[in-house]
Amino acid sequence: MSDDNDMTAFPRLFGGIPGSSFGPQAYDFRPLMRDGRVGAEIHSLYSTEQTGEGGPAAAIVRYLPSGAAEPHRHPGYELIWILEGELETDDGVYPANSLLVMPPGSVHTPRSPKGAVGFVVWEQPVRPAQ
Fold first, then answer.
1. Number of domains in the chain
2. Model pTM greater than 0.85?
């Protein structure tokens, strides 16, 4: 897997306000501990802070080797495009360039023994699987 200085599988990131401040941006990964995650980091592209409570969010999520999350339910769609490494769920192992489409009501337990990076879009915030 790449580190912050050698992100060959990462797309070049551009953002800002078109016509005034739109341009290249650096990735800024922060620890991701919600939803029972361990060994995961996130670079938020947009979140419920911008879209409102219960709104959509998108991020680049990096699972370090042995990173994992607790089982959780998706009230809305979740899209996961694996950019690098491998992501596992109870249904299989998904290598780079896999696109997972999780429908509303689905439950999964993502983990990555080897490490993975994915572009993730949440239609709505996830909930515990209970």
1. 1
2. yes
What confidence tens digit (pLDDT) does each residue in 63-94 have?
999 999 999 999 999 999 999 999 999 999 99
- φ, ψ at 37 (rounded to 5°): -80, 145
Cα distance between residue 95 and residue 30, in whole Å: 23
Domain that holds residue 38: 34-128
| CATH for 75 | 2.60.120.10
- Lookup: tokens for 40: 């995961």
Please indicate, yes or no, if residue 93 is contained in any of the structural domains: yes
Task: Identify whether the C-beta of residue 39 lies closer than 8 Å to the C-beta of residue 64.
Answer: yes
CA distance 85 to 9: 10
Q: Is residue 4 part of a domain?
A: no
Q: Which residues, listed in sequence order, are joined to residue 72 by a DSSP beta bridge?
A: 108, 128
> At 36, is the secondary structure helix, strand, or coil?
helix
Place of tokens 């922060």: 30
Q: Is residue 3 assigned to a domain?
A: no
pLDDT tens profile 24-41: 999 999 999 887 889 999
